[in-house]
Design a protein that fits this description.
Aspartate Aminotransferase, domain 1, four-stranded parallel sheet, binds pyridoxal-5'-phosphate, 32% helix, alpha/beta
Length: 441
């Protein structure tokens, strides 16, 4: 019998149908709109989740904490239609506008930086540090000083990203941000449930972004949320902008440009159901990661990316990521990039531009592409790491502070399947397929 295809990360509903019960309730009570009991209930669940420290490693709030001004008040959460919308509104609330600059991690998915351009501002890309693969604090400080020297103005916000769930160094990034008095928008879209010093990611900066897209830690089919850490006023402002910025008149009177970004009550019903199993999901991702670490350790030339072992980092391990030694030879490597592919990474949704050349000036090494193809032939979905934004043609003009780390990782790295549907047997099969794809010397 042919094996079922093992996908990178797939939405998984609770076994007892909690999602469908909440959705049915919405239909039964005719709350089929972008507000209602499920939206309120989902926000309450999220607030409880993000405000609960993990008892074992709980630490007092540090002065590096942008929430500390309001630390007697817990974080508020606003449910939105997408993680991208959450990034957009967080930047708007930080005052980002035309002509401004925002410092953003280069090694990320485009949704971290695209909203900067929606606001007419310029992204300034900051490279990664090798330990976490996330924003390099030294380079961040250098970039802040240099932007002030070059433009005479401070960047308006800093956007670090929890890549593949891995926490950024909150201690150093928040300390630097606070010293220069710049707000932090944490992009924790991939890091829902990851913790730093026992505290949930997204609760350190002024804002924290969550995503509930179909492939994330939990899903609402599509959706997102913004964690507001600096008090009720921010949460009110986000909610106002997310609902077309309305004024209290009997007719539509518009004094600011708003957005239609609120989460639907149907999607929120799915989210409430998902919150009943979120801890199981996170535990399973971590278990799969452990198994990869164990099974891939003996394979020379393959390195599993793991969190720093100093006790501060607690990744949700959304995806397992590996790097491949450039010297390692993979079967079929001589044919890598011979043919144009017809699909696109990220699935079949939407319209994908066809290309007539299979290569670009910045792409994964031939052995990485060969391993991706070998896994694909064995019915395993693997994917290159995010291509750094400072190497994307669309951002050719954007300033960038680089150290070679993210580009080198992009050349050498691959994401492997994780998530609730990936069984121990799948991981053993994936590890064996990787071992078999290596040309023995
Ligand atoms: C998924 C993702 C987002 C945006 O989320 P959507 O809900 O898909 O809009 C933002 N940043 C990162 C790093 C992501 O991976």
């Amino acid at each position: 019998m042919e094996r079922k295809r093992i996908l990178l990360c797939l939405a998984h509903m609770s076994a007892d149908g909690a999602e469908q019960r909440f959705v049915k309730e919405a239909f039964d009570s005719n709350w089929v709109v972008p507000l209602g009991p499920n939206v309120n209930g989902f926000e309450k669940d999220l607030e409880e989740f993000v405000n609960t420290p993990d008892g074992s490693t709980e630490q007092p709030a540090t002065p590096t904490d942008q929430a500390s001004a309001a630390c007697t008040r817990p974080a508020k959460v606003v449910a939105l239609s997408a993680g991208t919308a959450a990034v957009h509104l967080a930047l708007l609330a930080c005052g980002v506008g035309p002509g401004d600059e925002v410092l953003v991690q280069s090694f990320t998915f485009c949704a971290s930086s695209h909203p900067i351009t929606y606001l007419g501002a310029t992204p300034v890309f900051v490279d990664s540090e090798p330990l976490t693969w996330n924003m390099d604090p030294d380079l961040l400080e250098h970039a802040i000083r240099d932007r002030i020297a070059v433009t005479g103005r401070k960047p308006k916000a800093i956007v670090p990203v929890a890549l593949y769930g891995m926490p950024y160094d909150c201690d150093r990034i928040l300390e630097i941000a606070n010293r220069y008095d710049i707000p932090v928008v944490e992009d924790a879209a991939e890091g829902f449930g990851s913790r730093f010093r026992g505290r949930v990611l997204g609760t350190f900066g002024r804002f924290g972004v969550l995503s509930f897209n179909g492939n994330k830690m939990i899903t609402t089919s599509g959706g997102g949320a913004l964690i507001c850490n600096a008090g009720e006023e921010d949460a009110q402002k986000i909610m106002w902008y997310a609902t077309q910025a309305r004024e209290a008149y009997p007719y539509y009177q518009h004094e600011a440009i708003g957005y239609n970004y609120r989460m639907s009550n149907i999607c929120a019903g799915i989210g409430r159901g998902q919150m009943t199993i979120v801890n199981d999901h996170i535990a399973h991702h971590r278990h799969v990661q452990q198994l990869y670490e164990q099974l891939l350790a003996p394979i020379e030339g393959i390195t599993v990316h793991s969190q720093p072992a100093d006790g501060r980092f607690d990744s949700n391990y959304w995806l397992c990521t590996i790097t491949i030694d450039p010297e390692l030879r993979i079967v079929g490597q001589e044919n890598a990039y011979r043919h144009v592919i017809t699909g696109a990474v990220g699935g079949a949704a939407g319209v994908i531009h066809a290309v007539d050349c299979p290569t670009t000036d910045c792409q994964p090494n031939d052995n990485v592409e060969a391993l991706r193809v070998a896994l694909d032939k064995a019915n395993i979905e693997a994917r290159p790491l995010w291509k750094p934004m400072h190497r994307q043609p669309v951002y050719r003009q954007a300033p960038a502070y680089t150290n070679g780390v993210s580009e080198s990782l992009f050349h050498r790295g691959l994401c492997l399947p994780a998530g609730p549907y990936v069984t121990d047997d799948d991981v053993r099969y994936i590890a064996a397929t990787i071992a078999a794809a290596i040309v023995k010397r």
